[in-house]
Amino acid sequence: MFRRLAFENTAAIFTLVAFITAVSIYVTITWRAWRMKRPQIEHFENLPFSTPTPSARHEANAPTV
Amino acid sequence: MSDRKITLEFNDHVVRQFLIATLLWGVVGMLVGVLVATQLNFWQANFGQAWLSFGRLRPLHTNAVIFAFVGNMMFAGIYYSTQRLVKARLASDFLSALHFWGWQAIIVAAALTLPLGLTRGKEYAELIWPINIAVALIWVVFGVNFFWTLARRRERSLYVAIWFYIATIVTVAMLYIVNHLSLPTSFTHSYPLFGGVQDGLVQWWYGHNAVAFFLTTPILGIMYYFIPKAAERPVYSYRLSVVHFWSLVFVYIWAGPHHLLNTALPDWLQTLGMTFSLMLWAPSWGGMLNGLLTLRGAWHKLRTDPVLKFMAAAVTFYGMATFEGPLLSIKSVNALGHYTDWIIGHVHAGALGWNGFMAAGMIYWLLPRLWNKPLYSVGLANLHFWIGTVGILLYVAAMWTSGITQGLMLSATTDNGTVLAYPNFLDTLNAIRFMMLMRVVGGGLYLAGFVVLGYNMWRTLRGAQPVNGTIEVFEDEPARPADERVGVLGTFLNPPVLFSVLGSGFACAWMFGANALSIAGLVGLMLCGILAYAHYESRGKAWASWYDRLLVNTAPFTILTFIAVVAGGLIQIVPLVLTHHAANVEDRRQIPYTPLELAGRDLYVREGCYTCHSQMIRTLVPDVLRYGDYSRLGESIYDHPYQWGSKRTGPDLARVGGKYPNVWHLRHMENPRAISAGSNMPSYASMLQHNTDVAALPSKLAAQRTLGVPYPNWTPEQITARVAEQAIAIAADLKTAGAYVAPEKEIIALIAYLQQLGKFEAIAPAKAVAAGQ
User: Fold this and answer.
1) ipTM exceeding the 0.95 mark
2) What are phi and psi of B299, to 5 degrees?
């Protein structure tokens, strides 16, 4: 690079660090998500249904083409 | 507290406005796309008009589709779903209206300036600086309106769609501002603050994450709201959506350098970009599966419901595109696919399949509900789906075939790898002409599908009464429990965050420190892990309650999301920006352009030559055999903006300087087919008619000097004299070759620039490093 040669030998470490970091994130978040309580999950997943939605009434009047 | 209920009316007026704008700009953007695709087959399709040429319209196509089509669709979806998810009307009708009209004004300004050649010369970041400021301001309006609405919400819990919207707002603001930092030279022109490799890195940090945080995260939020609504069942796994969100926002931001593989970008950055790109497979497919599996038990509805058809196909295309993206980020695969139509196919699988079909599904779902009238024709919606699907498949298959064919032909060698099998670039172009034609057909079919949607929408809306959604809420909301609050201090001063920061610090010391520091880092990391576990064992509730409180607190959640996305950018960009770039080069340094060459370069940028020509010879044998010695990063350090390019519809130009005589360039620009039979390059004969803008050069050179390009402090008279001297010399050379062009014409400046490409100052590496210290 700018000091490209000096950095080149350390490229392998970046791969390793990247892998460890990403795995840590995945594991931590997965663990956290796994520990969520069922009532809490049900509350969250039903949020889109907490507001009434009018029907589209597709089938009633739509002409066929 | 009163238990009286009131009726809250949502602001669906702005949703309807954005919805109509989505369709309008979508058709415009796709129409321009079909036109530019046609121009690649029939160069005459620009009708001899400079403002209709490929290099000027291609940025219009990409900007229209990304910011106008998907942008408007995203705003419609976010405003509709957010109001309902948080049970609050949008905070300000004025801000909502300002957001809508401001965004449309920006789109109109872009549609006017880009064909005029007013551009910054960076992909998806072409708009000139006054429009950039307008975009930033309107984005702030959007952000204020959104977060203000969240602050007034009646539902404390933040659904995962809201998380994706928050990530979108904060990240796009960060990316857009950093990549658009510029030094103006006039009201319509500026130079980017970054140059050369720095500009390339910042550009693709932005460019890749524009895909991530403009075309993906908001649409994922929309997916998490609208698919459950359309399927009438909750998301398959809320747990998976949590993993999906955090892993995606953290990992995506690091992947930008995969757009610069095998180039002069430092290897450690290439490796980093490639590795994180491969890791994106996991969260992307997690999200895709979560979307598809939400349809469990509702698959039969796909037979009759066009909404679910579009959404299921969209999520499938999301899965395809996010499988292909990491695949293309593997260095060896990238060596084949980069600069070819394979990338175009990949991008369009995402844009047409994922974004376009999600937009269509959402529109069909919203139309009857926002106008209180059944959709005019379900049959037409189904017709739209099928011609759109056939269009995408035709387009993508053609581009895959074209890209792989051209990639293989450009890389093919004989005589034990020492001679190119297809030395004439045009051979590879001729081989893909049929596929390029199929792209026009596929794109045309897709566009026709949206025209059908437009007709369906028009017939549905005709005579319909717009209706705003309502909800019954308590007049006085219960006070928020004190134990729900986190606060800014509480965001950071809590066990999970503190142990994570400490652990990361020790890990860095272990990996990057020398001797004692490394050992201390390792010991510290182990101690940190043991203490964290012990603390969790005894105070596990503190860890869990912090996270639970985070789910109902907007500000701390936003701050943590911002930290997650900013980390990758800082680690990648800061070292490159802080390094003295002119001193730390390997063995070559760019020679600053003469004033005339700089004027020629601005013309090159104005005409969008970078949309078809790269200026980066990769560290690959076929590239070197075809174009010359591989490009060093020092050879473009003064390029504001960098012009490495991302597509080779024509050959690389990094070392074209001196390869041909001046008259060759003149004839080639005047009529490319007179020099290269079968070329699909537009004619630039108008550059023989127009004069070079010499009067603009003093302010341009002053800006370049401010940016670190070592120009002397010339007076305007000295600049004019230097321009005249070089222009007269080129004109005289042309005259000798039998061509007469006045020295003040634009073509002279362009020739001067092209003939300079590949010229450099050789310097000893040791000296270069020493000079930088």
Assistant:
1) no
2) -60, -30
